């Protein structure tokens, strides 16, 4: 089959790789019909390359048709249409039963001290082949896949794989009071959905991003938007009676703009041999923290900062004096996709499309064009906000 493979820093290519096969009775094989490119895929393209191996198959946002099921899989049949959550969870361990599927104890990558395995996301999360491919092997298919109908287009359901529940969890963790104000740093795909979810729930939402096309998209959904600036905290306080927003969602993560020291650290790591680079990431501060520090500065005293953006440095510096003094609550973590699907399904199937799932994709291309789209997406060229591949 054809699959998008990692070849090196800023280098991916479509290659012929072996078709996946059933390896465990609880596996399924899914023929992928659409697979989105996630902002966190760009971390593998750039910063987290030391954890990748040449030929690794990328991608963790797929939807498709079940082609084969293992002997122990019940409730799933050949021909079913399914969305595949990005984290691989068993559904019956201590963590899964508490709605913490991203911490599944069955699939935790204990050798790396990390949580549940993730499709297409480096040895940090199990080196499981991903879904930017024609076919995908799905472990724990007796629990993970989300069955959907055949009538609506892929894009109605596709984002249930990751970014829509990630945004929903980010807003839930933000603990916005009724009628409160929520600021969203970063209007990429997760930030777009977080902003729309905030509006759907009745909050005042202010979105911050340096890219005009992203601000324009958020404007269409009733979000107040601002360009990022060094004094963004002061600007937000001016808009909120001098206090700052009740809650802030950081939907940016480790590659924020305006963070020269983090950018330098990431560049240096990129030139080290893999083992040394891994050590540097695990023992040093390599994140660009401009957005997170701005979130801490901006949020009102006693407010909440919710982190949905991915960070990778183990000892990245945080302004603990300010955090303690302002009595800030901080919540974060990989999304527990299955925890939120039941709440989101009626919204994505609603004819009114209240979260605008059909107004996110800017580029739809065949798998062969994926390498060019990675470059375009990373550089934010031509208004590229969300890419969907059609294997």
UniProtKB/TrEMBL annotation:
Keywords: Metal-binding, Oxidoreductase, Zinc. GO terms for molecular function: oxidoreductase activity; zinc ion binding. Its cofactor is Zn(2+). It comes from the Bacteria. Residues 25-143 form the Alcohol dehydrogenase-like N-terminal domain. Residues 189-255 form the Alcohol dehydrogenase-like C-terminal domain. InterPro entries: ADH-like_C, ADH-like_N, ADH_Zn_CS, GroES-like_sf, NAD(P)-bd_dom_sf. Belongs to the zinc-containing alcohol dehydrogenase family. This is Glutathione-dependent formaldehyde dehydrogenase. It comes from Arthrobacter terrae. The lineage of its organism: Bacteria, Bacillati, Actinomycetota, Actinomycetes, Micrococcales.
């Amino acid at each position: 089959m054809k699959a998008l493979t990692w070849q090196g820093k800023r280098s991916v290519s479509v290659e012929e790789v072996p078709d996946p096969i059933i390896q465990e009775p609880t596996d399924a094989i899914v023929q992928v019909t659409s697979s989105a490119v996630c902002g966190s895929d760009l971390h593998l393209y750039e910063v987290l390359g030391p954890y990748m191996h040449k030929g690794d198959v990328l991608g963790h946002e797929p939807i498709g048709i079940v082609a084969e099921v293992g002997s122990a899989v019940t409730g799933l049949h050949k021909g079913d249409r399914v969305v595949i959550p990005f984290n691989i969870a068993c559904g019956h361990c201590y963590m899964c039963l508490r709605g913490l599927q991203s911490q599944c104890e069955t699939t935790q990558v204990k050798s790396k001290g990390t949580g549940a395995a993730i499709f297409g996301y480096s040895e940090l999360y199990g080196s499981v082949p991903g879904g930017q491919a024609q076919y995908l092997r799905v472990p724990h298919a007796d629990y993970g896949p989300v069955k959907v109908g055949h009538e609506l287009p892929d894009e109605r359901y596709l984002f249930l794989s990751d970014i829509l529940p990630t945004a929903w969890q980010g807003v839930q963790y933000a603990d916005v009071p009724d009628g409160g104000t929520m600021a969203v740093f970063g209007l990429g795909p997760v930030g777009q959905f977080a902003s729309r979810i905030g509006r759907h729930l009745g909050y005042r939402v202010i979105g911050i991003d340096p890219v005009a096309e992203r601000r324009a998209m958020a404007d269409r959904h009733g979000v107040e938007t601002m360009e990022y600036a060094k004094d963004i905290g002061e600007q937000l306080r001016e808009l909120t009676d001098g206090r700052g927003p009740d809650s802030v969602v950081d939907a940016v993560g480790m590659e924020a703009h305006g963070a020269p020291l983090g950018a330098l650290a990431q560049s240096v790591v990129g030139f080290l041999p893999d083992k040394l680079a891994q050590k540097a990431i695990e023992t040093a501060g390599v994140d660009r923290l401009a957005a997170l520090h701005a979130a801490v500065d901006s949020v009102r005293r006693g407010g909440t900062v919710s982190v949905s953006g991915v960070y990778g440095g183990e000892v990245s510096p945080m302004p603990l004096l300010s955090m303690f003094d302002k009595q800030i609550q901080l919540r974060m973590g990989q999304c527990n996709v299955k925890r939120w699907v039941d709440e989101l399904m009626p919204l994505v199937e609603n004819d009114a499309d209240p979260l605008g799932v059909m107004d996110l994709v800017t580029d739809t291309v065949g798998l062969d064009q994926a390498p060019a789209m990675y470059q375009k997406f990373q550089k934010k060229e031509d208004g590229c906000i969300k890419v969907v591949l059609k294997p």
